Amino acid sequence: MKELRGTNAIVTGASRGIGVFIARALAEEGVNLSLAARSADELEQVRTEIEAMGVTAIATVCDVAVADDRARLLAHTEEALGPLDILVNNAGIDIVRRFHEAPESDFVDTLRINLEAPILLTRAVVPGMLARGRGHVVNISSGAGKVGVPGEAAYCSSKHGLVGFTNALRAEYEQTDVNFSVVCPGLVTDAGMAHRWEQAGIKAPLIAGSSTPEKVASVTVSCIKRNRAEVMVNTPPVRPLIVLANIAPGITPFLLRKLGYSRTFERIMDKGLT
Question: Nearest 5°: phi and psi at 137?
Fold first, then answer.
């Protein structure tokens, strides 16, 4: 989908963090936006900002994990903007807790919001995209969708699931004009959980590197315009480590410990940060 001007997109989790930057990047391309999140005041602020960029922007306060809210989001979008061209599944939560100490709700909530909701939203919009012969879905996963890390069993499960889900859809709809991409950010500065960790005085190992939310947003747009399958957004040293961990998963715990990742997540768990 090389020309985005005048297309219509939904961005979930659009009231804060990476979602705001993705919305801005799409607006710069002339995309009309349907913004979804649970935080009414913050969402309205983003909507006002996006509309000032010269595109149409609407806001729907909703919980994507709730079926009725998803249906209301889709109905509001089509009524206000018209047929949907782009879906960015960005909404997500991350709860860092030791597996044996975590309540069942950690896993239920994380999987519902991070994995079930994107799957069901995608299922709802793909038939219309196929009928119109046009559409793109971008799933925002994580580096934790490629390598498991301590304290993140629920989060890693959900983000690994998004990678597999995206790859399955690319294979199934390869010969259509409906496309699917997955973006896997590493540690992101100035937005999201890594920013909260920094504010609490916890720094990731230097080798972990970082990327900006602007970079994640730029990659998201390029996925739509160039039909990119899967993109890791992080500094170069991390990428070969992830490849190595996937080729030889047995050494992953050793690598995480030696490179300082395990200690970082242990500190996060000890401080009770989420």
Answer: -120, 130
Cα R_g (the chain), whole angstroms: 18
175 CB burial (10 A radius; 0-12, 13-18, 19+): exposed
Residue among 155, 180, 261, 265 flagged as catalytic: 155
| pTM of this prediction exceeds 0.90 | yes
Residue 122 and residue 30: Cα distance in Å, rounded? Answer: 23
Q: How far apart are alpha carbons 9 and 224 in whole angstroms?
A: 11
Return the amino acid letter for 160.
H
DSSP 145: G
Whole-number Cα distances in Å, 63 to 85, 117, 130, 198, 203? 21, 9, 26, 28, 31
CA dist 195 and 187 (Å) reads 8
DSSP 3-state assignment of 33?
A: strand
Strands across the sheet with 178-185, in order? 57-61, 32-37, 8-12, 86-89, 135-140, 178-185, 230-233
Which residue do the tokens 């979930």 mark? 12
Question: pLDDT per residue over 146-183, tens digit each?
Answer: 998 899 999 999 999 999 999 999 999 999 999 999 99
| Tens-digit pLDDT profile for residues 60-119 | 999 999 999 999 999 999 999 999 999 999 999 999 999 999 999 999 999 999 999 999
Q: How far apart are CA 31 and CA 17, in angstroms?
A: 19
Active site residue 155: yes
